[in-house]
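Sequence in, structure out. Go.
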Amino acid sequence: MSDMPETISCTWEIPLRATVDVAVIGGGSAGVAAAAAAARNGASTVLVERYGFLGGTSTAGMVGPFMTSYTPDGKRQLVAGLFQEVIDRMVAMGGAVDPATTEAGSAWASFIELGHANVTPFHVEALKMATLEMVCDAGAQIRFHTSFVDVVMDGERISDIIILDKAGLGLLRPKVVIDTSGDGDIAAKAGAPFEMGRREDGKMMPVTMFLTIGNVDDARVEAWMREHETLHPGERLFECIVKEARERGEWTLEREFLNLYREPTPGQWRVNSTRVQNVDGTNPDDLSRAEIEGRRQAWELIRFFRSHCPGLENAQLIATGTQVGVRETRHILGDYVLNGQDVLEGHKFEDSIAQCSYPIDIHDPQGPRGRLEGIHADHYEIPYRCLVPRQVNNLLVAGRPISADHEGAASARVIPPCYATGQAAGTAASLSIQQGVKPREVDVTLLRKTLREQGAIV
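Output:
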């Protein structure tokens, strides 16, 4: 038995790196929008990102395409503003297809109808550059290769953020903090209440290792799907092939069909078909297991594609994500909790800062399928109160961990709403500093007016 203690106490002298108006922690979709919005509205802003590029799960996780930013019938855009600006930058680079031109049920949408009109196919490298340019052009400072460590609290206010970079530990001293970490890490450390996964048992949706494949016979894949849609309406891509392979013991993944999304480059498709269950994305041991299993499954898919799937006989693995894509961890509890009924019934709010229409999309935490249920309205709205966590006075949350239950988050978690809540949080943070008030006390009428003037749809 070792006599070493289980924990040790240390005293650190941590240097102050910067004093800023707004610190945005996490350079994913919400963080990019929050940092750009805060800086454009006059706040000195720093964006902290652990990788050497921006984009979060869309780049590091290769999660794509962006899901719908339009109404279910595809006739009206719902998420614009900074989200559309990123798309415009990628389209100009030849790295994306504008969602105004993509149709439900097409190869761009993995031949899925419900909730998949007006998706945005994109190249990861184009997104890295487009987001970088937007944040830099806005005047925000970016601290790459920098990790969040902890918060220093002064009552119910965050006084400092402790970070770790190549120079060691450091402090950021912001007036307002925006948590765009994806998992609500900053809010949790600051003492904001939260729930994990679904309310009844804490189970969370599975994680996925995305991959991109090339050398695909596009025409043959689409011909197979057209033929089987005629014979078996509602059948998903290669579903009968997967079913037969499972019965023969030639398929082991927790999936009943394949999700393949065509990319802008001919012969190249994004694959969303791996699935690792029982992963807590806030647990490093679980994440390590998920990375190992996700990469194993990626190569299992490549072998399956080549041996079973028409049009994929010569498929080549181009890339896997730098990290697994995590769908769900903490739901930070705010002044309002968006719920499944709000989504399905299209509820509207006086303090709305975003409009969305993506279905409730729950990947079964314990099985191979899930639930995809479309909303019963033109759209639903996300109120500003979902960005304002309880018990912390100078903090906003944007992106995946906003205040929503398991069902509400199953819609609001996708990329377009993350950009929308990020733009709202960044704008609100700047306004709160200008007005000399806490973020929850911001004039919401002025916030909505400012967002509209800057291209957002509220």
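Check: The chain has a mean pLDDT of 96. The first helix runs from residue 29 to 40.
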